[in-house]
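Two entries, shown back to back:
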Amino acid sequence: MTGKSRSLHGTTLVELTVAVAIMTTVFAAIMPLFAGIRNSADARWAGLEMVQNARVLNDHLYRHLAQARRIVAVSACTDPGGYIEFEAEDGVVYRCAGQARGYVEFGPVGELRELAGPVEYLRFVCYDAVDLGRPIHSPDDIRLVTWEARLRSAGPLTQGRRITGACCLRIRPAEDSGEAIDP
């Protein structure tokens, strides 16, 4: 065996230990990036969910209040679990209310169904046609309804979002008398 070169193709224990250490270091540097990507996706999903809830709440309230005949009852503007009741064109009285469970419910009185949420609060402020600077509580004089809700985030990485909306009531002529109600 003298004079012959041996060609060894094995890996020593030191080389194997160094390779494992390098791989561990690389994975330790890369793994937080994957967690950041997941957190970013979770935050984006929570934000999109809040936007969808805001869109549903605003569109639903605007569409139904714009066609209301009259306001039946409304909560105080400082009530965090606010509600509004109104009579629709078909004569049915509808209610939209923020519930203690944190969701907004909507439907005919006594048959409420979940509409949007979770919300921290829902407030309604109403005005007459003459003075838009001072809220009123008399249902017969209400011509403008504004609402404000604070949507809670579904994820821990995003903050809640405050939404507002408004609707001017389209009061139609009174059916029993020949005169129109002046908005």
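entry 2 starts here
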Amino acid sequence: MDKPNIILEKTFLFSLRIIELCNVLEENRKYAIANQLLRSGTSIGANIREAQNAESQQDFIHKFKIASKEAEETMYWLDLCLYSRDYPNTEKEKEELLSIIYIINTIIGTMKKKLENGKNEKMGKMRK
């Protein structure tokens, strides 16, 4: 049985939450913010999903870095909602996103270390 992929699950559920939030924004005629938030907020999970079929470790890291950038953009739009008048409260979404960002950055760091350790091992073998 496969182990659950926490980051895939979290980003998928976050995307669903973003879709719901964007529906509320559109009902209140906040179309520009809804559009930007929908694009960046759902792109996080899409890039994480795409990384599951990466062609290399570098490609995997690259996809996760894109997800990280999209997460930061999403945080910007959530902040705008939170601090603007007549916009929904986005504190829960921000809290959820912070945990996603932490996991993404941890995975990027771990993969970079693995990649670097692999390079160091190859260099050591070449010198022998």
